Amino acid sequence: MTRRRKGRAKLFIVSVVVFAAIGAGVFFGIQWFTKTGIFRIPGVVYYDESLSDAEMAVLKEIFTEEVDLDKDVKISATESYTRPELKEGDFLYEITVPVTDFYDNTTSVSSEELNNYEMIPVGELDYTKRLLAIDDKYFLDDFDGGAKFRVISFDSEKYGEEIKPLVSEAFTKKFPEKSTVLTFAQTGVTALSRGMNEKLYKVGDATYFAENIKDYLSGFDLTHTSNESSFTDYASASNICSDKRFIDTLLAIGLDIVELTGNHNQDCGDQAALETIDLYNEKGIKIVGGGKTAEGAAVPLEIDEKGTGITFLAYNLSTGGATYDATPGANQYYEENAVEEIKAAKERGDVVIVDIQYYECSAYASEYEDRTCDYADSAAGDQVGFFRHLIELGADVVVGTSAHQPQTFELYEDGVIYYGLGNLFFDQVWWPGTTRSLILAHYFYDGKLLQTKIVPTVYDNTMQTKLLDAETAKWFLDRLVSERP
Which class for 231: exposed (0-12), middle (13-18), buried (19 or more C-beta within 10 A)? Predict the structure, then answer.
């Protein structure tokens, strides 16, 4: 090899080495400045002190030593009494609500008083504890207030790529909301008749009687009443029959379900009762506990809405009104039917509500407060024993719809009993007890009864039903609680 060739080879080798060195310098320089490759610093998980021990335990099961993050992530928690607007990286982790004893008729507490009450996750809520409003916001009505909302936040430059796939399953949760909670208002005796007919002739508009209650009752997904009087042209101030215009009263409260277990629906004859059933059907109002024949009257009402199945059963065990053949009337109670129907409903996984037109408690002795009917008593029979027996058969909720004045209520075994709801609409203005009623505001979610809020009503000589003021309502409910069995 000539000297010239050796020089060229040496120059080539030097050039290659120089270019390799420059390339390596650039390569490792980029890694240095970008902290990648051999100079890469793994992402760090920073846990804020706002996180609870339970939350930390969940997080550390996710972010183990084997998890290799490219970027840091900061994890923190915040709480508020209004539902927050969630941004990327935020998860509504828990909703807790204040509760009290079932027999405590407190309805609302201030946020400053919450330390005096038990707070539970909303997923643990059931009818055996009384849900409280916070600053007059009731969670199952409001959903954006009346609770403590806890949010877990993940802050990372690579949240979508790195963090979201790791945490979404554990931190995405389902909570009750308006679209999934079924609301159902059960009301007591309605008898749009006698003095109400006379009043209607004067005022001319049947919606007059519902003016102060229609907005509340029509706001429920389902609204029920037990109507004891049929519509007819022969309604008067002296009979329990309804002027045909009274259908507007029921439509004004948004009536969805009418119970026909009463003992007066045939007072104006079978033809009026048949035409009344036709009118309910025409208006899209579902019927339970009565019908055109004994067979039709015995058909349970099955409800399947918002993920909850309800079987609604209604029976007559009273002083009359039942049908036994091809004539209209109420659904007579037979033990074997109740056993079979409740069993079938439970096998379907339904919540079972049983309404009973029982023997009436008639303690209308004076114009002052008479507490005789507060206790679950009646003119005949063992009301307490019979209603409890229905719970023992498997009913979840048992309601008395014959009492013209409200009666006590109780938890019993695996169910709840409301012995009498009183008059929603009627002309009995002479005794304080018969002017009041209880609305049972039921809230169902995911196939179970979450809550029943008891809402008292009252009417006076105007015969316009309205909600009882909060102070009087608590006094009255405390009185009923004191008489529970």
Answer: buried
Q: Which letter does DSSP use for residue 422 in this model?
A: B
Segments forming the whole domain that contains residue 185? 181-481
Domain count, the chain: 2
Q: Which residues contact 389 (CB under 8 A, 6 or more apart)?
A: none
The predicted model scores a pTM of 0.91
Structure confidence by residue, pLDDT tens digits, 60-87: 999 999 999 999 999 999 999 999 999 9
| Domain CATH number, residue 436 | 3.60.21.10
Q: Is residue 203 part of a domain?
A: yes
Residue 484 CA to chain centroid, in angstroms?
24
- Dist CA 117 CA 99 (whole Å): 7
- 164-171 and 53-62 helices, crossing angle to 10°: 140
Q: Which of 136, 171, 206 corresponds to the end of one domain?
A: 171
- Residue 443 shares a structural domain with residue 477: yes
Question: Per the domain annotation, does 2 fall within a domain?
Answer: no
In contact, 334 and 342? CB cutoff 8 Å: no
Ordered alpha helix ranges (H), 330-369: 335-347
Residues 6+ apart with CB under 8 A from 318: 261, 263, 330, 357, 358, 359, 360, 402
pLDDT in tens, 186-242: 999 999 999 999 999 999 999 999 999 999 999 999 999 999 999 999 999 999 999
